[in-house]
Fold Protein kinase domain-containing protein.
Amino acid sequence: MLPLMPKADPELFQNWGSAEIEVFCERQYTFIAPVFDFTTMQHFEWDTLVRMPFLKPLKWGNRGAHGQVAKVKIHPQHQAWKTPLNPGSQTSWFAVKKFIAHDDEGVAIFNKERAALLKFSKENNGHKHLIKLLLSYQIEDSLYMIFPWADGNLAEFWEEYPSKPSENDSFWLIHQCFGLSDGLSKIHGYNQRLPRYGHEEGTTDMDAANRGRHGDIKPENILFFHEPESDRGHLVVSDFTLMRFHSDNTIHKTAANDVSYSKAYCPPEVHQGSNTFIDQKYDIWSLGCVYLEFITWYLQGYDAIRGRYFKTSSGKQAESFQTMRRKEHGGSNDTYFSHVPGPLPKVKTSVDKWLSILHKHEHCSQAIHDFLSLIDHHMLAPLPNDRYSMNQVRDELHMIASKCRRDSNYCQSGIPMGTLMRGLNHLVERSGMSSFQPVGEHSTTIEQGLREVLRGQATWNTV
């Protein structure tokens, strides 16, 4: 059985010349390319002479902080699956991620990401909206992982595909955002999950350190995959490099200044010094930022998110959401919060203004109003304790999605609404009273006060 070595099998080579032996020993590896077993998520170690079953040489993309990714096709006879796939699927593209592992730190990064991925890649623990590790391997000092190839990330999706706010994109958006929160709820370690959605039934109990935090939620770390039965496909959370797991006893013991993060989507607590600790509510803030940009794409288009300016539905040129955030306080900082005089950070005024712009959009349906209110009041809250947990976000989105299925007008019919009317209706709903319609809008001071009440930063006094 190949490979054959002259020293191990001398009788086989006794009549061969040295040149023939050298050529044979080198070329025999052409015939023993490994079969990738995608059923076990096993880690393999291979010799440098072993040929990979790739149909074309790897072309590595731009190097990131921890590695590079190449797009590749794997020979269909070198793929092993539990359920046989059709020929088209077997020859589809895969992503090979190469880790920069020249030292112990690089190896540790690889091991941490692989351990996190394994929690959600096994047959009974997978989830449609979490990326699945197919296989990992090592050749000398180089470490690799193989994943399904995505058609792009969410930011690229927004840029490439125009939104259609008057059609079915609203339901697709809400349904996908629910799926992302359901997958992240699984990472956060909540055992009570909605049945039969995105993951297999019969999920086994997780180990003691089951309270995960993704730690780097942003559009670039959410991938989209085309599906034959869907115009838009589905979204998947990826890049578990910064993910960490804790037990219930240690979930609140990560110091804020020990955390790596993406600046635009980080929550206020990362800037509050060494005495501040972060937990899973970190992910809630970041996800709220992504959701708000997602709705911006739906109502206003990509340029309204990351362009300098964009054209409104009336044809006027206006500053984009990113431009507004950067101009606040006269800097280039595009975070969603600002540190103002006083002990607590605040959501940027530009974010509040943008929420109002979206609520007043002609295509903003009641479902989108409710989604924006979830983001505004329960996700982008400056204090972590005032934010919803991930399973609360998921459950709220599940209710919105369920109502969309029952009522197409709720989902798609645009009903522009002002800030004061929405805020007062929300407060009245909380108190158990019936809703009402105010005569007109009032000052921004009142509107800002309502926002602070709804975010838990102020109280409502009755006289």
About this structure: DSSP finds 14 helices and 18 strands in the chain. Residues 6 and 14 are 9 Å apart (CA to CA).
